[in-house]
UniProtKB/TrEMBL annotation:
InterPro entries in UniProt: YjzH-like
Species assigned in the record: Spirosoma sordidisoli
Protein name: DUF4177 domain-containing protein
Length: 65
């Protein structure tokens, strides 16, 4: 039976009015984790009470052993 371990990565936005995610920085981090065997399984949009994006929660997994 396959066994997995999981990792959550919280990605914050920058700016007060123009909430943006630095896509190059995110790509670099995901590529780094991919080289370590991590695979993205899902992403969740984290919202502020007014509906603006606060950030992303990225969920990754990799097989153990």
């Amino acid at each position: 039976m396959k066994r997995f371990e999981y990792l959550t990565l919280e990605v914050d936005t920058s700016g007060f009015w123009n909430n943006k995610i630095d896509s190059q920085q995110l790509n670099d981090k995901l590529n780094e984790l991919g080289r370590e065997g991590w695979e993205v399984t899902s992403t969740v949009d984290l919202n502020r009470p007014q509906g603006a994006t606060k950030g992303l929660l990225v969920i990754l997994k990799r097989e153990i052993g």
